[in-house]
Each structure stands twice: as structure tokens, then as C-alpha cells.
Write a structure and sequence with these properties.
The radius of gyration is 22 Å and the shape is globular. It contains 7 helices and 7 strands. The protein is α/β, with parallel strands linked by helices and 204 residues long. A hairpin with a 4-residue loop joins β1 and β2. The protein folds into 2 domains: 1-30; 41-203, 3-Layer(aba) Sandwich (Glutaredoxin), CATH 3.40.30.
Length: 204
């Protein structure tokens, strides 16, 4: 190899290394899609925790808010993100559901950065509380006993804090109707928690 070629080769190698480093860095910044991690309803049901876990996340004003802030209320906890198309489609329906069911509390948990969530929230005008986190929100989802999840991801909780079930993927009107029917039967003691879990696992 000639002396003139050596600097050119070194420059090429350094440029290639720099490019590879940059691409690796960009890959780490790419947000996961809603299909990155998947779980089936059956596997989720078998590992579902018995009770509402104890965790807190920041609300839209930056204040920490515990998931236990709504005692004696059934909960629909909806994990979502601004980059998740199905999540955004179901939010207007969840707003309407909250209006029609004031005794049931919808709680949104954004697995996202605060800035895009604030921008979206200003446009959407949520009528239910929204909590925000990235890794913390994913840890919160894992606390329900489901090892893996995709977005959107919803959790159903009885008024006494018993976990009743989960739904992975976009939620639809029939899912909400089934939830209301199960909660009504549970509150009137026509079924117990085990029967409510079994019915939701079948219907969701």
C-alpha cells in the first residue's frame, strides 16, 4: 500500500465508524410501535395480579398522583401514546364513556414524553385524568402482572380494587358495554370477582 493511500484508508475507516455510531444512537431514540411487544388475552389473564397495584405518576401539571386516588370507584385504566394511531382513535369514545358513566373513573396513562402529551391534551380536552411517564409508565403496566403489552392497553378494576381483566389493542363500544354489564352484576352481587374475571376474559 502506498503512503498516499494510507491516510485515505484511515479517513474512510473513521467515517464508517462514525456513521455506524450515529445510526446506533438514532436507533435507540426510535419510539416503539404499538406492535413492538405483544401478548395474548389468555396469557394476560393467567398472570393478572389480584389487586390494584400501588404506584404514582405525574399528571399533566407535573404533580404526582396515585392510581389509588379514586377509592370505591371502578376504574378503566387506559395506557396510550401520542404516536399510537389506535390509541388516538379510541380516546374520543373513552371521553364519551366517561360522560355517560360518571360512577366509573377512566384514567389515561400516556407512555410518552410530556411535551407531545401536553400538546395533544390541549387539543383533545380530556374529561378524565391523564398521567404521564415513559419507563415509569411501562413499569406501572408491568405491575398489573402482565409481562408484555402492546398499545393501547386497558385494565379493568372493580370498585373494591380487585383487578377484573385487561384488553390489549383498540377498545370498541361492545367492550365498554360488556364492562358496564359485568360491573353492574358485580355491584348487585349477582356474580363474584372470579365470575366477573371469567366473563370479561371471554368477552374481551
Amino acid at each position: 500500500m502506498s503512503k498516499a493511500a494510507k491516510p485515505t484508508l484511515v479517513t474512510l475507516m473513521l467515517s464508517t465508524a462514525a456513521l455506524c455510531g450515529y445510526l446506533a444512537y438514532r436507533a435507540l431514540l426510535v419510539q416503539p410501535s404499538e406492535h413492538t411487544v405483544q401478548s395474548t388475552a389468555s396469557s394476560a389473564a393467567t398472570s393478572l395480579a389480584a389487586r390494584l397495584p400501588d404506584f404514582s405518576l405525574s399528571d399533566l401539571s407535573g404533580r404526582p398522583l396515585a392510581i389509588s386516588s379514586w377509592p370505591d370507584h371502578p376504574l378503566l385504566i387506559n395506557f396510550w401514546a401520542t404516536w399510537c394511531g389506535p390509541c388516538l382513535r379510541e380516546i374520543p369514545m373513552l371521553k364519551e364513556f366517561q360522560t355517560d358513566n360518571p360512577d366509573l373513573q377512566v384514567v389515561g396513562i400516556a407512555v410518552d414524553r410530556l411535551d407531545p402529551v401536553l400538546t395533544f391534551a390541549e387539543e383533545m380536552q380530556f374529561n378524565y385524568p391523564v398521567l404521564v411517564g415513559e419507563a415509569d409508565a411501562m413499569n406501572a403496566a408491568a405491575a398489573f402482572g402482565v409481562d408484555f403489552f402492546a398499545l393501547p392497553f386497558s385494565v379493568f378494576v372493580a370498585a373494591d380494587g380487585s383487578l377484573l381483566g385487561v384488553h390489549t389493542g383498540e377498545i370498541h363500544a361492545e367492550h365498554l358495554e360488556n364492562l358496564v354489564a359485568v360491573l353492574k352484576d358485580l355491584s348487585h352481587e349477582r356474580i363474584d370477582v372470579a365470575a366477573a374475571r371469567a366473563r370479561l376474559a371471554r368477552l374481551m
